[in-house]
C-alpha cells in the first residue's frame, strides 16, 4: 500500500477540506432557513433529514473535488479554472443527490436541491477566493537544508523550479560538499558554513536535511547528522525526498539497490483473481454507462470516412512480463496513417481526423480497451503499454525501463495524470519516472485515487 502517498497530507490541504465542509454545511442551513421561512407557505413542513442531506452532499462533492484535483495544493490553475471545476463538482453532486432522493422517496420541498446546489456553489467559490488571498499554503512549511550542489542536487533546481512545486517547502540553502560536480546548481542559494552542521541546523530551525552530494564515501558528516537526527531533524536522501515531494523517481539518480531491495511486485494467485474480478466488475459497470457513446463514436467515424471505413484499430503492445498483445481503440487517424511505418503521435498530428481529435481529447478512443481489461491483458490502472518498435530502443537507452513489465499495463496511470503527453524518447524518460513511482507504491488506495483523478483528464480534456 502506498503509505507515502496518504500519510503525508499537508496542513494546507486539511484547511481546504475543512473549509469546504464548513461552506457546504453552512450553505445547507442557510438555504434551509430561507426556504422554510420565505418560500414555503405550509408552516408545518419540515425537512426530516436535516443532517442526512448535507452529509451525503458534502461527501459526494468532496469525492468530485478530489477527482478534479482541487485538493492538490500544487494545482497549476488560475481562479477562473477553479470556479469551472467547482461548478462541475456541484453539478455532479446535484445529480447524485437527485438520484438518491428519487430512490429513497424522502420528501423534499420543491426545488430545494436546486437552491441548495446554488448556495453550495456560491459559498465554495467565496471560500476558495478568500483562501487564495491568505497565506494558508505556508502553514506547516518545512525548512529544508540540502547537502550538495552538484548533479544530484541539481534535480531540485531542474524539476522543482516553479513556485507551486515548492509549496510547503522553504529551502534554507545548499551546502557544497567535496566531490560535487562543478556544473551543478546555478540559481539556488549556496552556503559556506562557518560553524558545525548541527549548530547551523538548530539555529535556522531546519526540519529536514536532504543528502544530495555526488560523492558519499568519507564525505558525509555522519556525527553531525546523528546529532541532528537526535534533535528531531529528519534526514533523507535525494531520491526519497524527490519521490515524496513530486510523485516521481529520479531515474538517473537511483542505484541498482533501489530495484533489488524494493518491494516484490508479484501477486499471489488469490490476489490475481481478486484483481481480475475487481477490474471486470468496473469494466462491465462502465460499459453499461458508456455504450451509447461508443455507438455514437462508431457512427461518427462512419459518417466522416465512409461506410466501408474500419471503426476499430488494433496495435501490438508490450504487456506484463514483456508479452505481446493486441490493444483495441476506435480509429482516430486516417486509414493510411502508418503506411511509412510506426511513428510517434504528435500534439497536432496531421494524421488525426476531425472526429478522431474529439475522441482523443475526451479519451473516447480508449473505450474499446474495456475488452482488453476483460481478457486480462490490461488492468484499469498501470503504466500505459508501449509499442515493441519503441520499447526495444528504450530498453537499451533508458535505465530501468524494463521494470514497467513487472506490473500489468493499464487504461490510465500515474504518468498520464502527472505527465499528460508523450511523443519522444525524452517524454518516455519523464513518464518512466512516474511509472516507477507507481510500481513502487501501488496498492488499492493508490489505484482508487488514480481512477478518481482520471475524471479530471476526461472532463477537462487534459492529457492524452
From TrEMBL:
The keyword Membrane applies. It is a multi-pass membrane protein. Keywords: Membrane, Transferase, Transmembrane, Transmembrane helix. Its main location: membrane. InterPro entries: Bact_transf, EPS_sugar_tfrase, Sugar_tfrase_EpsB_2. It is found in: Membrane. Residues 277-459 form the Bacterial sugar transferase domain. The chain crosses the membrane at residues 12-35, 55-73, 82-103, 115-131, 276-301. The keyword Cell division does not apply. PANTHER family: COLANIC BIOSYNTHESIS UDP-GLUCOSE LIPID CARRIER TRANSFERASE, UDP-GLUCOSE:UNDECAPRENYL-PHOSPHATE GLUCOSE-1-PHOSPHATE TRANSFERASE. Belongs to the bacterial sugar transferase family. This is TIGR03013 family PEP-CTERM/XrtA system glycosyltransferase. It comes from Vibrio porteresiae DSM 19223.
Amino acid at each position: 500500500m502506498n503509505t507515502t502517498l496518504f500519510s503525508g497530507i499537508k496542513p494546507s490541504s486539511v484547511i481546504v477540506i475543512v473549509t469546504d465542509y464548513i461552506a457546504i454545511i453552512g450553505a445547507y442551513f442557510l438555504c434551509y432557513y430561507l426556504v422554510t421561512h420565505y418560500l414555503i407557505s405550509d408552516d408545518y413542513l419540515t425537512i426530516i433529514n436535516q443532517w442526512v442531506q448535507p452529509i451525503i452532499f458534502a461527501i459526494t462533492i468532496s469525492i468530485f473535488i478530489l477527482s478534479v484535483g482541487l485538493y492538490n495544493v500544487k494545482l497549476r490553475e488560475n481562479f477562473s479554472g477553479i470556479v469551472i471545476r467547482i461548478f462541475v463538482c456541484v453539478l455532479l453532486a446535484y445529480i447524485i443527490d437527485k438520484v438518491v432522493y428519487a430512490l429513497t422517496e424522502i420528501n423534499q420541498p420543491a426545488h430545494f436541491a436546486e437552491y441548495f446546489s446554488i448556495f453550495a456553489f456560491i459559498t465554495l467559490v467565496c471560500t476558495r477566493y478568500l483562501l487564495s488571498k491568505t497565506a494558508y499554503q505556508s502553514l506547516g512549511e518545512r525548512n529544508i537544508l540540502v547537502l550538495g550542489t552538484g548533479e544530484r542536487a541539481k534535480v531540485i533546481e531542474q524539476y522543482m523550479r516553479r513556485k507551486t512545486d515548492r509549496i510547503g517547502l522553504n529551502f534554507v540553502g545548499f551546502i557544497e560538499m567535496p566531490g560535487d560536480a562543478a556544473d551543478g546548481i546555478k540559481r539556488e542559494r549556496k552556503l559556506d558554513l562557518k560553524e558545525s552542521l548541527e549548530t547551523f541546523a538548530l539555529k535556522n530551525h531546519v526540519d529536514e536535511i536532504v543528502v544530495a552530494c555526488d560523492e558519499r564515501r568519507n564525505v558525509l558528516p555522519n556525527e553531525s547528522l546523528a546529532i541532528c537526527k537526535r534533535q528531531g531533524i529528519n534526514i533523507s536522501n535525494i531520491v526519497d525526498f524527490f519521490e515524496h515531494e513530486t510523485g516521481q523517481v529520479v531515474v538517473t539518480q537511483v542505484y541498482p539497490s533501489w530495484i533489488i531491495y524494493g518491494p516484490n511486485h508479484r501477486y499471489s494467485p488469490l490476489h490475481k483473481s481478486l484483481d481480475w474480478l475487481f477490474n471486470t466488475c468496473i469494466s462491465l459497470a462502465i460499459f453499461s454507462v458508456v455504450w451509447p457513446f461508443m455507438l455514437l463514436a462508431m457512427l461518427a467515424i462512419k459518417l466522416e470516412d465512409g461506410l466501408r471505413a474500419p471503426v476499430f484499430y488494433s496495435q501490438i503492445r508490450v504487456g506484463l512480463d514483456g508479452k505481446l498483445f493486441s490493444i483495441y481503440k476506435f480509429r482516430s487517424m486516417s486509414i493510411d496513417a502508418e503506411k511509412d511505418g510506426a511513428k510517434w503521435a504528435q500534439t497536432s498530428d496531421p494524421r488525426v481526423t476531425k472526429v478522431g481529435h474529439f475522441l482523443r481529447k475526451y479519451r473516447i478512443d480508449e473505450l474499446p480497451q474495456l475488452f482488453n481489461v476483460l481478457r486480462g491483458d490490461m488492468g484499469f490502472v498501470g503504466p500505459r503499454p508501449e509499442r515493441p518498435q519503441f520499447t526495444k530502443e528504450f530498453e537499451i537507452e533508458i535505465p530501468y525501463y524494463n521494470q514497467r513489465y513487472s506490473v500489468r499495463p493499464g487504461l490510465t496511470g500515474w504518468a498520464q495524470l502527472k505527465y499528460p503527453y508523450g511523443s519522444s524518447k525524452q517524454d518516455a524518460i519523464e513518464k518512466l519516472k512516474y511509472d516507477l513511482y507507481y510500481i513502487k507504491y501501488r496498492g488499492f488506495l493508490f489505484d482508487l485515487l488514480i481512477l478518481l483523478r482520471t475524471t479530471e483528464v476526461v472532463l477537462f480534456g487534459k492529457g492524452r
